[in-house]
Write a structure and sequence with these properties.
7-stranded mixed sheet, about 30% helix, 4 domains, alpha+beta, Aminopeptidase, Alpha-Beta Plaits, 26 helices, 10-stranded mixed sheet, about 850 residues, globular
């Protein structure tokens, strides 16, 4: 009896706790699929689960969104595994070289991480996530999974977008949902809930981590490094369900094991869906190439990772009539599919936990001892590139790619990324040295590769992304292994010495400054700022906000024994006298805060080149008032790129203007100095009725910046220089049998007109202020070819002459290649005292094409 009583005492509290665990409908007060759930309600349910089953559940709050919503994950496991959770986690990190030391235990369960609702209006996934929590804890299938694995559930990666959609939908739907596709509850207004606060796509930000929600997510991800990652989405409502195996192309560095597990996981999902008679498809559309997705980035970090797509998205609502199927798709149906895919995937891994753990360790052993790729080391030249180096290191740190510093001079041979030629070069003190022999070797190789191997030209996203070219920083790829004694990486802003590896030969743990800045003494005549990166643009923006006026040198000059390039910013005391002592205090404080080097001079007379009072040292437009068109008809992501650049990077005001509102239809030109028109869809966001006022504003000194296809607004329009190239080919009088279209080839035929993110080397007129700070070339990411001719009376600043000479990497369709011959991409047209700036390639693309930020800043600040 005593033994029985003791048993009862042990079991009773747990049984009571589980008995008190409510299902989501019980807790929320409405049936599954009856309405959409806000992020706060989702978190409340997660907290309820953790409170009721504390021995099996741990909540991790890992940050906040831009709109101050919480970011949360839940860890779920068996009682035994949760008791030893920290030991399991640290042993796991030690086993793959992501933490120093040796694991205490040889066997351990794998971590299975599921990410739901990265796109806010794909809200079925969060609805399913809370049901998955319950299923894991209250079903035999869940018990089996938790016996062999530890599950991490991120129920909503994008709370801002999720709540934007859910709040809108709950306001629009009536007591009975209307399945008619024309009903207003199926017509989400601009910008919709898909994107984050700044209208970025967080599912394309995993590698670049430009957004706060992504940076916080990856910081947490690095603390767990799961062996499985599921990335849950929705697609159009007429489609059924997609799960792995993925479509081709697969990146060549995806391992045999990872490929096999795509098939294995797919088999488990097929079995589940077949039992339910649910429709699905595999092997189509969603590939594994672009490295910044929620499936590819984890894959390149060793995980078994895949995308899941449920038909519905922000269109379907609670019920939607599908014309293709002749039925009504309900939210309840969609939730069931996502739960089924989640549980089937868990089972696929839980049935082979030891093998999953072992293969993950093998991936990292290979990375550290026999890395993929021809390059075994990389050297990044840092001299005179303080701004780019700072930004470049931030990207490495966020991805926990380790690096060291050179402190000697030695000659090596390597591929110069900027010339695309193998060259001899010398290391210098302060150069970054990155060894491929490190845990993050595969990711490093993929981010740095120039020409990813394409096994299929039909891809879902961009096909080239080379980081050294995106940053415009001189980098060498070496086939030999350089000894790096004490590699470092930055984790949460702290330098982390890992496994005693850091700088080349006799490496140093503290990076040398590498700056040629002057020590500021007294009250200098002028401050001089080398204009070479977006970091200097941030300083200029800060000075303008503080009412400090600046000038720019049109030509190279020399002063105090130092040479300066065109575009150098000069901030003279003359013209800023009213600021008094604040003049020096603000400049020095802002430069120090931003890490920008300042040079000074006691004289305004140059030893070579123009003196500071010359017309060739022109005053910049002071604190320009900037407007950005945003609203229906404009690209959400392009608007977001510009908005985020001003708001979060430059910390400079920008006014968003909706041209569809009564106020926006009469644009306040008199209150603007710069107007930016983003990529636009479905018509002209600048109406014909606005053209007279626009012309008058331009002639009076306004500056219009047109991005990507917004350049078409003024193309071929009377009074403007930009012209579309004429097709010299005469139309065939009749179609020959050999040229007849084949229906089955329609997708591949369409690819001849596609350019999904290929890299081209544009020629630059770097004597023009739009190209200040650049050499005579610029690596551009080309997503579209707008086929513009060279301007006769305008300035052709960035262009391609011969396509085959300019091509660097990525897929470009045959018809696009023809258009790229003798094509203008960046140009400036002068109208009276104003200017039109044409930017047919997006310089701010996804916030990761770092070198383009300087070009964009030139368009805003540097034109005289």
């Amino acid at each position: 009896m005593k033994k029985l009583s003791l048993f009862a005492l042990i079991v009773f509290p747990i049984s009571v706790a589980v008995a008190q665990l409510q299902s989501p409908p019980q807790f929320l007060g409405y049936a599954t699929g009856e309405q959409f759930t806000t992020t706060n309600q989702i978190y409340q349910y997660a907290e309820h689960v953790a409170q009721q089953v504390p021995s099996q559940v741990k909540i991790i709050n890992y940050g906040k969104t831009y709109e101050r919503r919480a970011l949360m994950t839940m860890v779920i496991g068996s009682e035994e595994n949760m008791k030893n959770l920290e030991q399991i986690r640290t042993d796991h990190l030690k086993s793959i070289g992501m933490m120093s030391g040796q694991p205490a235990q040889k066997t351990r369960p794998p971590f299975l991480w599921m990410s739901y609702n990265v796109h806010g209006n794909e809200a079925v996934n969060s609805e399913a996530a809370i049901k998955v929590m319950y299923e894991l804890l209250r079903t035999p299938a869940g018990e089996k999974i938790l016996k062999n694995a530890i599950v991490i559930i991120a129920p909503c990666l994008n709370p801002d977008g999720h709540d934007r959609y859910v709040n809108w939908y709950n306001q629009k739907v009536g007591r009975l949902p209307n399945p008619n596709p024309s009903a207003w509850e199926h017509a989400e207004p601009w910008p919709g809930g898909r994107y984050s606060h700044y209208l970025y796509d967080p599912n394309r930000d995993w590698a670049w981590q430009t957004q706060e929600i992504t940076r916080q997510l990856i910081t947490l991800y690095h603390q767990w490094m799961p062996q499985l990652h599921g990335d849950f989405h929705e697609m159009g409502p007429e489609s059924p369900y997609y799960f792995a195996p993925s479509a081709k192309p697969y990146h060549e560095d995806i391992t045999t094991w990872q490929r096999e597990m795509q098939e294995t996981v797919g088999t488990y999902n097929k079995k589940y869906f077949d039992q339910k008679n649910w429709l699905y498809y595999t092997h189509e559309r969603f590939d594994l190439l672009y490295p910044s997705y929620g499936d590819t980035w984890p894959t390149y970090n060793g995980a078994i990772a895949m995308t899941y797509e449920q038909g519905g998205s922000g269109v379907a609502g609670l019920a939607y009539e599908r014309s293709s199927e002749g039925d009504t798709l309900t939210l309840r149906d969609r939730i069931a599919h996502v739960i089924g895919a989640s549980m089937a995937t868990f089972e696929a891994i839980a049935d082979r936990p030891a093998k999953v753990v072992d293969e993950f360790v093998k991936f990292y052993d290979k990375a550290q001892n026999n890395p993929v790729g021809i390059f075994k080391s990389y050297v990044v030249k840092t001299a005179g590139e303080d701004g780019k180096t700072k930004a470049f290191k931030e990207l490495l740190d966020r991805n926990q790619i380790r690096y060291g510093y050179a402190n000697d001079t030695k000659t090596y041979k390597g591929l110069n990324y900027l010339t695309q030629k193998e060259e001899d070069f010398k290391t210098e003190t302060g150069d970054l040295v990155i060894s491929a022999y490190q845990p993050k070797s595969t990711l490093l190789k993929i981010l740095f590769e120039v020409k990813p191997m394409l096994e299929d030209s039909l891809t879902y996203d961009i096909t080239s992304w080379c980081v050294p070219l995106a940053y415009g920083i001189k980098t060498y790829g070496l086939k030999e292994k350089l000894v790096v004694n004490g590699q470092q990486s930055m984790v949460n802003g702290q330098q982390s010495m890992v496994n005693g590896q850091q700088s080349m030969v006799n490496g140093q743990t503290v990076p040398p400054s590498g700056r040629s800045a002057d020590a500021v003494r007294g009250l200098p005549y002028a401050y001089i700022i080398n204009w070479k990166s977006a970091e200097e643009a941030k300083l200029l923006a800060a000075l303008m906000k503080n009412n400090i006026r600046a000038r720019a040198a049109e030509k190279a000059f020399e002063i105090n024994g130092k040479s300066y390039m065109p575009g150098t910013v000069i901030v003279t005391r003359a013209g800023n006298e009213a600021l008094g002592v604040r003049f020096d205090q603000v400049i020095q404080a802002e430069a120090s805060k931003l890490g920008v080097a300042l040079n000074t001079t006691e004289s305004g007379g140059s030893t070579k080149g123009s003196d500071f009072g010359s017309d060739y040292v022109y005053p910049l437009k002071h604190a320009p008032r900037v407007g950005l068109l945003a609203g229906e008809g404009t690209s959400m992501t392009t608007v977001g790129e510009v908005w985020h650049f001003f708001d979060q990077e430059l910390n400079y005001p920008v006014t968003l203007l909706d041209p569809n509102t009564r106020a926006g239809s009469n644009l306040p030109f008199s209150k603007l100095d710069v107007l930016i028109v983003p990529t636009s869809f479905g018509g002209n966001v600048l109406r014909e009725s606005q053209m007279p006022a626009l012309r008058e504003w331009l002639r009076g000194g306004g500056r219009l910046i047109l991005l990507e296809n917004a350049t078409n607004i003024l193309a071929d329009k009377d009074g403007f220089e930009l012209k579309t190239k004429k097709d010299d080919k005469k139309a065939d009088k009749k179609t020959s049998p050999d040229s007849l279209r084949v229906y089955g080839n329609r997708e591949r035929d369409a690819a001849t007109d596609d350019s999904p993110g290929s890299i081209y080397k544009l020629k630059l007129d770097n004597t023009h202020p739009l190209a200040f700070g650049f050499p005579d070339y610029y690596y551009a990411l080309i997503n579209n070819a707008y086929n513009f001719d060279f301007m006769k009376n305008g300035w052709n600043v960035g262009y391609i002459k011969k396509e085959k000479d300019a091509y660097v990497a990525g897929f470009t369709g045959k018809n696009v290649k023809e258009k790229l011959q003798n094509t203008l991409f960046f140009g400036v047209e002068e109208m009276g005292r104003g200017k039109v700036v044409y930017l047919a390639s997006d310089p701010l693309f996804r916030g990761f094409w770092y070198n383009g930020k300087l070009l964009f800043a030139n368009a805003v600040f540097m034109l005289p």
